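Re: weekly structure request thread

Next one in the queue (449 aa):
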Amino acid sequence: MENKKVTLVGAGLVGSLLSIYLAKRGYKIDLFERRPDMRKANISAGRSINLALSDRGWKGLEGVGIADEIKKIAIPMYARAIHHKDGTTVHQPYGKDNQAIYSVSRAEINMRLMDLAEQQKNVKIHFNERCTSINRKNMEAEFENTETNSTTKIKSDLLFGSDGAFASSRLNMQLSNDRFEYNQHYISAGYKELIIPPGPNGEFLLEKNALHIWPRGSFMMIALPNMDGNFTCTLFFPFEGEKSFASLQTREQVQKFFEEEFPDAVPLMPTLLDDYMNNPVASLVTVKCFPWTFDNKIGLIGDAAHAIVPFFGQGMNCGFEDCVVLNDLIEKHKEDWSEIFPEYESLRKPDGDAIADLAIANFVEMRDKTADPKFILQKKIEARFNSKYPDKWIPLYSMVTYSPQIRYSTALKEGQKQEAIMQKIMAITDIENKWDSEEVEKAMLNSIK
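Done, posted below.
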């Protein structure tokens, strides 16, 4: 193997996992992380959003034999629990036969992945190291230590930028390439993290094995369970407007708004007002760029290549899938990076773009449609048809979440076809009363060419 030495910029989820994949193939990895070691430092909450680990992500973890380690810190969620304004709750199962997505704390899984990376004898993680420049010609990266201000220069055979949505590795590539395409898009909503603590004996105050959603049209709140009995709540809310972050300025306004919109949640949130006033508002960005690889020696991976909004729960899963695809290509091309990098880019770029678009569309679905009877009926018709004809119809959510063999770009195309069919089906007269009839089934079969 010629290429032995690898520099990784960013020891987040994808960087840490990629280092394990490459280390197991004999590469020597130096992993540079801008932040302090989160396992030692006291990193405050308020910006984490719990993550939903699903089949693509599990496949990435299984590929290096660490899925069982991560299962210890993951809680299965088998359904959406939809909380209506009148206090009633409705369950919408995610899949069938006990299919689940798994709630994990971003900090917990990152710390666990760092531990597992450091167990590889050929991985070294350097903290408080900010990437200041990458010289493509001589494959030299420069890092500045944020504590001592000293700089380190490191040469390597390969370099990966896995340093997130605002990657300095990507910026360096952008500055060194005169035809670098870059597009970033912010949605008009931001988010704020809140908490539902455990009950007096450490018990969960909402159903533990569900992802809780309070859909309210132009905004929503969600809650995901943590191992210690609390729920991480996230309010997704417009920045401006009548009901927005801008319009809630005082504790009284916050109290009134939550009592009107989320009456069943307020009694479970004793620190609501302090959390709301103190926790930051964060924005949500989609990043699309091209190219992802340079000189067959440098590659972007994870959010550095394709940052997406969190509404399909696929950001981490997509990044882990990048690692799987890359690993398969290393195998296929026997370490020949002049073959690996171009194919990695041509395979993953369409999938990164597709899941970005799907995630934005899913925001509308979660916020507006999960409480809409017509939408719920449509999903019921699709689920029934799928159970009778599993080879003819897989619902879009299942394609994305439970079918790692189906590419995101394929799921997007199929989903668009299915949606066009369902629009016609939902327009059938009296569909509410004959949704499970032979007539509807035949109409669907005839629509599938």
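Residues 147 and 157 are 28 Å apart (CA to CA). DSSP finds 15 helices and 19 strands in the chain.
Next request, please.
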